Amino acid sequence: MKFKHPALLLFIAGVVHCANAHAYTFDASMLGDAAKGVDMSLFNQGVQQPGTYRVDVMVNGKRVDTRDVVFKLEKDGQGTPVLAPCLTVSQLSRYGVKTEDYPQLWKAAKTPDECADLTAIPQAKAVLDINNQQLQLSIPQVALRPEFKGIAPEALWDDGIPAFLMNYSARTTQTDYKMDMERRDNSSWVQLQPGINIGAWRVRNATSWQRSGQLSGKWQAAYTYAERGLYSLKSRLTLGQKTSQGEIFDSVPFTGVMLASDDNMVPYSERQFAPVVRGIARTQARVEVKQNGYTIYNTTVAPGPFALRELSVTDSSGDLHVTVWEADGSTQMFVVPYQTPAIALHQGYLKYSLLAGRYRSSDSATDKAQIAQATLMYGLPWNLTAYGGIQSATHYQAALLGLGGSLGRWGSLSVDGSDTHSQRQGEAVQQGASWRLRYSNQLTATGTNFFLTRWQYASQGYNTLSDVLDSYRHDGNRLWSWRENLQPSSRTTLMLSQSWGRHLGNLSLTGSRTDWRNRPGHDDSYGLSWGTSIGGGSLSLNWNQNRTLWRNGAHRKENITSLWFSMPLRCWTGNNVSASWQMTSPSHGGQTQQVGVNGEAFSQQLDWEVRQSYRADAPPGGGNNSALHLAWNGAYGLLGGDYSYSRAMRQMGVNIAGGIVIHHHGVTLGQPLQGSVALVEAPGASGVPVGGWPGVKTDFRGDTTVGQPERLSGEYSQSRSVATTG
Which UniProt keyword terms apply here (predicted)? Predict the structure, then answer.
């Protein structure tokens, strides 16, 4: 029942609660009509009246809900009357309880909408704190699903509202050439990404239009597909034109059907490799986990065993130092060793993809061969990850198996091998094999990171799926290149980064080499980057070299070096304004120097930049170039413009971008839609910032859109009406 005078009852309950050390009794006649139907003897025993109370539902000290809860009068083990909340199994599941692990919850509740028996969970307690209007639920941590950061509870997911949505972007540029023969070139580009949401299905398309110079405009469709999420499988079903996942095999464009795991439905901390921190709390305790001196996790657990699986580790190495702070002041401390394998999944996480269809090349003359592919990755115990896959197509078959593992402080290693059977158009059948080794290590003490990948092609006949299928053309022409017949014998890539602290900066080295079979020479690519902070500014040096094998056996080598410096001007301007200088020097001449000033204004909604550049070897008068760039991040979209000028040419450009959602309330315009989309409704509250992104505000109706709602926190989703639209 609900009470006519809840304030009076709350006052009486508060007095009883504060004076429960003394035996007080209440004279019901003093309350007059307000006492009718109220059992005053309960107040004399320090118990509130049964009925419906609006309370904040707290699970282990954290608010998870605010609602009207029905409280029934029951007796505890000592026969003392207590108020027990009526919580359904579905509500407990929504609050994070592993209801599937406790079938006794259903003993009293024949349906999910009836009261569950909370005593089915050992050491679980429910206490009504009437003074603070809170229902305090104490649930052992092992009975709770991990509270994954960065993703909303699955109970909050839905298929969203029916809607039409579209991203759009457009740019037009006018260039006037002044040297030699004067002429004007106009170019325009438009991209549309329309979509429709009907129930669980999403239909998506990407179409672009381009016109340059005197050529007529041309439309081109990049893809059209329909897909839906399968929440129980944490997967997505796709029908139409898509590209396969590229974690095991190279990505392949196809037209057909694909069923694959959807990482967006799984918290990053669950799918990445991470150790499980287990322990037992004697009291209501706080658990703190540190890595490399930084706190990466903090939570409160109820008395009893706990298992922390939701750790979001910050580095791929560094032991985890765990401290359990008990309520009585005592502590427990222990260490969990940690190192991420080169290929790693969280233990027990399964990732897969299945596809069947036809090959979809960007060249319309390429045959649309039938293809099928299956891949699987699984996180094993003992810090291991197993993975593999098969590919099958007309004229092509391949299989791959691999294993990744942690070597502790010696780093991480993964090895896989693949075998192919293929036949290019007009050539004999080829058999090939390859091995791939990936090694990574992070030395926390020295700030050194090292990554190495080595491909070894054991035989000349190794080909990828695209290598083979691209050779089959129905126009009778073969696009031949001398490099097409080059067979790699090995390929190596490496990356080394070194941190020397705030003043000496960070150094990064990258390199790759490809050796060719039956031909002397190789292709090389190297890069060096160093950056540091100086007096609030930034300084960076970059160098790159590419060495490419040519047909006559010679090599073409290109070097480019750049130096960049940026310094904030807050001490003079008082706002977010910076000055920069950059020098770029290619090996074949054309050194360019550029100075600029950039900043933000109007709460980061306006970005602006002014640049002046000079090229030493340019024609007379053509070496100086001035440029201005403006960009506005508005509530209804993005708008940008740029202007550049030199004696040789003048260029002006304008670009716009945004997103449109047509729904049951009307049309909502906003910034480009990213990933899944939510419609935020705050009726009558126009111009309210949402999500912390520059320019994202509610419109005149109080509506706007935000991207990736599954990443919104529970509190955010409760404070706004969120409906998924993509």
Answer: Cell outer membrane, Fimbrium biogenesis, Membrane, Signal, Transmembrane, Transmembrane beta strand, Transport
CA distance 151 to 288: 21
Residue 6 predicted with pLDDT over 50: no
Q: What CATH number corresponds to the domain at position 10?
A: 3.10.20.410
DSSP string covering 24-36: ----GGGGGGGGT
CA angle 199/201/206 to nearest 5° reads 135
**Bridge-based pairing state of the strands 218-230 and 235-243:** antiparallel
Quick check: 11 pLDDT over 50? no
Is the separation of the CB atoms in 450 and 498 below 8 Å?
A: no
Domain boundary (133, 149, 165) is at: 149
Query: Using CB atoms within 10 A of its CB, is residue 95 exposed (0-12), middle (13-18) or buried (19+)?
Result: buried
pLDDT value for 666 = 87
pLDDT confidence band for 467 (50 / 70 / 90): confident
Give the tens place of pLDDT for each residue, 500-548: 876 788 888 888 888 887 777 788 888 888 888 777 788 888 888 888 7
184-195 pLDDT, tens per residue?
A: 888 888 989 999
Does a structural domain hold residue 44? yes
Q: Decide if 45 is inside a domain.
A: yes
Here the CATH number for the domain that contains residue 327 is 2.60.40.3110
- Burial zone of 620 (CB within 10 Å; 0-12 exposed, 13-18 middle, 19+ buried): exposed
Q: Reduce the DSSP state of residue 100 to 3 states and report it.
A: helix
**How many domains does the chain contain in total?**
2
Q: Is residue 497 part of a domain?
A: no
- Structural domain that includes position 13: 6-149
Is residue 176 a part of any domain in this protein? no
Where do the DSSP E strands lie in 448-586? Answer: 448-457, 488-499, 506-516, 522-534, 537-549, 555-568, 577-586
User: Tokens 């091995």, residue?
Assistant: 435
Q: What angle do CA 264, 265, 269 make, to 5 degrees?
A: 80
Last residue of a domain, one of 290, 306, 336: 336
